[in-house]
Sequence to fold (259 residues):
Amino acid sequence: MTTAKDWRVDLAPLLFFAALIALKTHYLVGYIAGSGQLWEIIGDAEQRQAMGPSAAYFMTGQFSHIAYYATALAFDALVFYSLLVRRGAKERPKGFWENIFPLLTVFVPVTGFTLMFLPQVRAMLPPYPEALMRSLYEITPAFAYYINLSGLLIGLFGAAFSIWAIAHLKASFGLRTAVRELVTSGPYRRIRHPLYFGEIIHILGIAILAATPAALYLFVVAVALQAVRAKIEERKFLATVPEYAEFQRNTGFLWPKLF
Fold:
């Protein structure tokens, strides 16, 4: 099977990630251009002094937000590039579980979380219990700031880890379940599916930022989808790559093997 045929088969994912890159770039450029207050505070020492600790909270939140979207954009761009340059598959995907299901593991969480951040959709989603939120605010009035910052940093770590993983996959990356080259470098020395681990951490950060129980439910669904997808891939590799059994014994599933 030629690489050109691979590219045509995965035209939908290519277009999907191209649209994601365009949307995130538009959002990030607009956000930076519209952050006039941030640049004023950075350039005005008197204003920072007058604001006190709130200036540090504000700047930390703003820069974390920008760094998160920049990292997520870099990941999407690397996925797009990997889809373009990847090698032809030694063993092609077959049937629903190897062709369609892997795409669902990507599109379901991305679409779900994107919808959750739309104001019209958020208005219909149930919030966390009022008693719980009140008790948390009693612990510290800056609770919302710390939660948002935690979500941003967790999402940032997950996206950065995913970038590390996909950088080692390079031309062996694919969304559908196909057998290319077995990668054992970088994070793949300890974890069989580090890309999925990074994506799970990334999605956890987004679920925290979404600030609704529905986001946690979707996170659980996303983790289950990724775990099933990983098992499907392992079954195919075990059937076609003789050295995969040894690789499986020496590595952890979604986290490093401790013993």
User: Anything to note?
Assistant: The radius of gyration is 21 Å. Residues 1 and 88 are 6 Å apart (CA to CA). The chain is about 75% helix and 0% strand. The mean pLDDT is 87.
